[in-house]
């Protein structure tokens, strides 16, 4: 097992009716920016529940944070927050709203010039406004970690940042808020969470059997519960199980002491930045090719994954690996997530553009062995055509 | 799944060489009480490593915290801390030292009279001195939770308390510190952790498949790694896996959203208080009888546990449950932990005394269904004779 540090101070309030706890979780004297997305919370009752819980608080609203939250939009929230002397933020929505709020929280007190430097130059976050979250879409895990991914529309960049200061103080996870999600978003969330686990699991063995089994526990549960959720999105227990799996997938518990491979995310972000393809779908496009391309260096874990998650025990090692990757593809496709670039009308020219951008940014040494270079990225994307 | 709150802000620093991090984890201007146990840390090099890391700190030492830490001893540490104006505590040792430090931390600023009231009357902890831990014995999980169990020698009481203020600020887990543990303590630790998991798992199903699998992940890993650790206590990876399992067993992750049954602990504490039997051994005595006595109400989970952890699939339900409980007993015995009261020269008269004490204290409604009364405790203990 590798050495590690684990720290996650996010308080989770999980279950039916927990939104009412906002009344006490948000400090009584706070001046709150309530940040949300495209307005779905106004259709499903969450908006009213939140305002009701905060009826004795001073609340300023900021709606319109888009999927893949944009720097340009978020800076309006920063401006509004300063005007209104906001000292607490509440994110109400999915991972994009929460990621966006992390940026707003760090940008308000940022003293180093343009807050975009937090993403582009990894400028250190030394202060941040405290914030909490009401999660309405199980997917990214942002509700229980300190990471954030922000898109700059002007330059079509999608970049990440994180800081110990950008953990939510609390996150409320009420599975009932997901009952009205479009199936497309539910599918995306399941694939996103599933891929998060694989990126922390399909590397090389370091004799960490507990971490392996914890990862497999989430994978098997998503495999079982995912199709049920699509069939019956208002079944409470199924929704609860999906929601908790997505949070556990990226709260750090399965990552400790093991190598990780975030190449799929890094490559996928480019497809979103250039073509606006849903984040989860970019992962479903990239991951199978990456696994096939790296099947030798990931062999032991691919075989273990195949056996324990998909029951693949027959055939040569090469055959078992291919059966396992195909089982993963079939799972994604069964959730109505297409896994080929051509399904999204993306072709060779995009691959060239991604290669150009990676070269320009000096991207190199991706993957758990730091052996995925730009030429490998090109190969992987070609395999996904 | 049941509603739940999860909060665990303990920072974990895991691995070889991590004790050196004390230099920065303990605030530079702190006046530190370094608390430890019977002196084993002076034989295995941990004492020197800690003092070396804290060479620029003001440190006051307090040794001699015993297994099942005693109120009487801890109050001496409270007195010393006040004299020396201690404002930070470092626990160096196993669960007993860490539990003891939690009490010291809460007792120093306690304003409600005798700090024993924190245990005996559940007097609220409104202030506590911050503290960290260097763990040297994987077992109780105290390094990553806020609970503590204190024994009052005078009255032979063993009582628990906990508060959000008694989480360690950090815990350092270096598996190498366990290399020199007596096998007896290693066995105890494995059984303690294994039982902690079972007490959060062998209840009734609430459609929480992820929590079930996370619990089973720890059980299977302890089952596999435990015997290896006894055979080769200086194998780093094995020691690391045991250590991380013990922490994960009681840091709250597997408890969320599911019922729990702490009856085994409640009854076991009495055997320690009256006869000084090692804590883990009391669990190994009580648990099998409790599972047999409650086999009907725990049926679904016992069958699942048997199948997934011990591979028990043959026979009637009744037979499979008995085979499963016996497999658990065999596992404990294989670790050289005896599971009968007679192995510890305890007889009927102790059972009577425990019944008397429970009646006196008004103990009732134990177990996940609150249906274990004193008469049931008597039956369970008789089955363990």
TrEMBL record, chains A, B:
The keyword Oxidoreductase applies. One of its GO terms (cellular component) is cytosol. The keyword Ion transport does not apply. It comes from Pontibacter ramchanderi. Keywords: Oxidoreductase. Residues 9-175 form the Alcohol dehydrogenase iron-type/glycerol dehydrogenase GldA domain. InterPro entries: ADH_Fe/GldA, ADH_Fe_C, ADH_Fe_CS, BDH-like. This is NADP-dependent alcohol dehydrogenase. Belongs to the iron-containing alcohol dehydrogenase family. It comes from the Bacteria. PROSITE patterns: ADH_IRON_2. PANTHER family: ALCOHOL DEHYDROGENASE YQHD. Residues 190-382 form the Fe-containing alcohol dehydrogenase-like C-terminal domain. SUPFAM superfamilies: Dehydroquinate synthase-like. GO terms for molecular function: alcohol dehydrogenase (NADP+) activity; butanol dehydrogenase (NAD+) activity; metal ion binding; methylglyoxal reductase (NADPH) (acetol producing) activity.
């Amino acid at each position: 097992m590798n050495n590690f540090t684990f720290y996650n101070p996010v308080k989770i309030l999980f279950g039916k009716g927990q939104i009412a706890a906002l009344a006490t979780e948000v400090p009584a004297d706070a001046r709150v920016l309530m940040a949300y997305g495209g307005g779905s919370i106004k259709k499903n009752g969450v908006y009213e529940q939140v305002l009701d819980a905060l009826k004795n608080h001073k609340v300023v609203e900021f709606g319109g944070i888009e999927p893949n939250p944009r720097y340009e939009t978020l800076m309006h929230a920063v401006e509004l927050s300063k005007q209104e002397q906001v000292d607490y933020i509440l994110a109400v929505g999915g991972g994009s709203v929460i990621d966006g709020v992390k940026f707003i929280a760090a940008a308000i007190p940022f003293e180093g010039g343009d807050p975009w430097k937090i993403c582009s130059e990894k400028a250190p976050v030394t202060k941040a406004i405290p914030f909490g979250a009401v999660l309405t879409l199980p997917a990214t895990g942002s509700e229980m970690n300190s990471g954030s991914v922000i898109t700059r529309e002007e330059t079509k960049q999608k970049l990440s940042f994180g800081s110990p200061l950008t953990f939510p103080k609390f996150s409320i996870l009420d599975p009932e808020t997901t009952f009205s999600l479009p199936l497309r978003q539910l599918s995306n969330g399941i694939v996103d969470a599933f891929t998060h686990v694989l990126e922390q699991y399909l590397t090389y063995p370091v004799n960490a059997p507990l971490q392996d089994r914890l990862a497999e526990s989430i994978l098997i549960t998503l495999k079982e519960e995912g199709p049920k959720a699509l069939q019956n999105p208002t079944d409470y227990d199924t929704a609860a199980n999906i929601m908790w799996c997505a949070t556990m997938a990226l709260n750090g518990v399965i990552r400790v002491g093991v190598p990780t491979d975030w190449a799929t995310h890094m490559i996928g972000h480019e497809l979103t930045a250039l073509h606006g393809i849903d984040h989860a779908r970019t992962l479903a496009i990239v991951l199978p090719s990456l696994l096939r391309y790296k099947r030798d260096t990931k062999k032991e874990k691919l075989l273990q994954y195949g056996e324990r998650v998909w029951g693949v025990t027959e055939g040569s090692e090469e055959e078992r690996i291919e059966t396992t990757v195909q089982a993963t593809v079939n799972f994604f496709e069964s959730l109505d997530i297409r896994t080929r670039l051509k399904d999204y009308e993306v072709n060779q020219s995009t691959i060239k553009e991604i290669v150009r951008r990676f070269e320009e940014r000096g991207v190199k040494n991706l993957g758990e062995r730091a052996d995925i270079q730009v030429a490998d990225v090109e190969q992987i994307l070609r395999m996904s055509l």
